[in-house]
Amino acid sequence: MTVAADDPARADVRALAARHLAFARAHTPADAVFALDLDAWADPALTLVAARRDGVLLGMGAVRDLGGGHGELKSMHTDEAARGHGVGTAIVTHLLALARARGWVRVSLETGVGEAFRPARTLYARCGFVACGAFGDYLDTGTSAFMTRAL
């Protein structure tokens, strides 16, 4: 498996991003979905990476610079067939290395609080993230879990 920068315009990336957004919408109140829509992936402030094996997309994630040495891990998603095989860990590890290379000192994230998001929260905790308060432009509405880690 390789994890590397990828193009958000690629058809398979767009399809996985659409599945991620559909998952978020299915498990989160409509006014609390912060997953990126398909157009937002073109934002040059985001760095998208994808995990692939033999060219097949397994998962993706992104980071965004929040300023002041703080970054955000954004819209992580592993294809359902690839879950449980270390894809998420590989993507988080790659994104954290990218954040360190950029000189960031902290990376934070927002995910859901519901049972459907438990695997994501477990992954992030295994990768050293701990609970924190809302950050950036987020408001704590009770529908999000916020996590952070120092680099």
Question: Concise description?
Answer:
The protein is of the alpha+beta class and 151 residues long.
Keywords, please?
3 helices; globular; 151 residues; alpha+beta; Aminopeptidase
Sequence-ordered SSE layout with sheet pairings:
Layout (H helix, E strand, L loop, with lengths): L1 E4 L5 H17 L18 E8 L2 E12 L2 E9 L8 H15 L4 E7 L5 H9 L3 E2 L12 E7 L1
Parallel strand pairs: 4-5
Antiparallel strand pairs: 1-2, 2-3, 3-4, 5-7, 6-7
Class inferred from helices and paired strands: alpha+beta
User: Sheet bearing the most strands, described?
Assistant: 7 strands, mixed
Distance between the termini: 24 Å
CATH superfamily: Gcn5-related N-acetyltransferase (GNAT)
Low-confidence blocks of residues? none
